[in-house]
Amino acid sequence: MQFSTTDTRIGWIGTGVMGQWMCRHLMDHGFQATVTNRTKAKAQPLMDLGAEWKETPEEVAAASDVIFTIVGFPKDVEEVYLGESGILKGARPGAVVVDMTTTSPSLAQTIYKEAASKDVRAVDAPVSGGDVGARNAALSIMVGGDKDTVKALTPLFEIMGKQLVHQGPAGSGQHTKMCNQIVIAGTMIGMCESLLYGEKAGLDLEVMLSSITGGAAACWSLDNLAPRILKGEFDTGFFVEHFVKDMGIALEEARRMNLALPGLALVNQLYQAVMAHGGSRMGTQALMRALKQLNNAI
Amino acid sequence: MQFSTTDTRIGWIGTGVMGQWMCRHLMDHGFQATVTNRTKAKAQPLMDLGAEWKETPEEVAAASDVIFTIVGFPKDVEEVYLGESGILKGARPGAVVVDMTTTSPSLAQTIYKEAASKDVRAVDAPVSGGDVGARNAALSIMVGGDKDTVKALTPLFEIMGKQLVHQGPAGSGQHTKMCNQIVIAGTMIGMCESLLYGEKAGLDLEVMLSSITGGAAACWSLDNLAPRILKGEFDTGFFVEHFVKDMGIALEEARRMNLALPGLALVNQLYQAVMAHGGSRMGTQALMRALKQLNNAI
């Protein structure tokens, strides 16, 4: 199995803030694309570059050799793959499907099995790096699936990302992304409680940060999100509702595996409070606001 | 106020794994030192280099212009400063005392006030960087106290550390160190739960880490302690009992300030479990063992 710009037609489902850049990089490298999206207007830039529009995932799949998806929530993934007009209705035998949404490892395994029964190969390949990583083709791509399929997809992944790691069988990409999010849950609560403590103790938080960011407390969140909190900038960044989705998936998978993760569970609850206060579309640093509310200090 | 190797005699109380190096750096730069320690044998290397031994903190203080302390727990600091044969019994008017132990900000403020009543100036200056940082004079020093005193001490701190930041009035150094430890509590729970999830999900943890250490989950703990966990190396690193001490101080200060820190409280409880299972003198990565016990997977 080998993909080339002359023989391979790609399908792309989900042309949002991430997908439109990722698809565009493939098109820039010469691939012909067929696309669809819930909101057609968001696919217009790609159509302007020559992408063909189809109304349903089924039709996109029927026209493509490799179909990529990056949509919203697990229920969207389920609909796009297994629904009435889903990919698996239209995909031809021998086709490859690649879900790059962060979604449930169990769902990835279900899709893998359903696809296999139709001689379609499925790979899960969630990413980290956000919209900046998507735009700059600098994503980290965590891949689960059969070795041969992953190998064949490698040149395509390399167009979209900087770091590509095959993590194991179907679902392993998603599990790895969950590991990523679980660490972040920890760094977020640590960072926010530290800032809250420092503020309450009367420290100059910028000066405080200058003492701690270079040592054993060093973390990406402290470097990148603490400055936003200090500026009162809560509207930018990775949406709370997406992080809550991810933590929910991790906790549900942990439940299936009979695994208690008390830290993750607590952070998830505090983010539920951020949601309850209308913070769904704020950046994850809005956890600070829930902690302040909790302490009646807003 | 200015200190020089010709006019200034330093005192050093606490010649353990950190203190013996810090004192030695000052001696290497030409300062005459008077020392004491609970276990005399540990001060022998400094005496071999010319340090004078005294039996009590009071006697050390009486012989010194600047007295440094780095001992164990807050009760030790209290004893060393305010006890029967404590520093403040012996310190001469005009002397400067510098506590580099990680201890309670409130205690630092008490010492500051008690010292001031005897015309002695007190500074709190806890450090991060561990024994390696102490040996290589690469510590981060977080300083609380009066501006003039801190300024006068700066040349001495620069002999011991790489990064020196004056954080504010007495207690601010300790508060800053607490901020540091609160972040670490978060990175530790995030890292350990991530590894536990990954292991249970059947991932190859080294491969998993290769996907997540370069992005938004990046943190010192993941880089430095996750590899130890993978090797089953729990006996090295920052002692659990010292981290539990630090978290206890932070939680007690938070209580005084009417501040709820649910994440820190949870991590503290899990480390109490590590202690209950005999892990006091293990490295902080032993949190992984408590989480495994919790999940009955050891």
UniProtKB/TrEMBL annotation, chains A, B:
Superkingdom as given in the UniProt entry: Bacteria
Organism: Desulfoluna butyratoxydans
Domain 6-phosphogluconate dehydrogenase NADP-binding positions: 9-166
NAD keyword on record: yes
Listed name of the protein: 6-phosphogluconate dehydrogenase nadp-binding
One Gene Ontology term of the molecular function aspect: NAD binding
Record bears the keyword Membrane: no
Catalytic residues of the enzyme: K177
Keywords linked to the UniProt accession: NAD, Oxidoreductase
Ranges of residues in domain 3-hydroxyisobutyrate dehydrogenase-like NAD-binding: 171-290
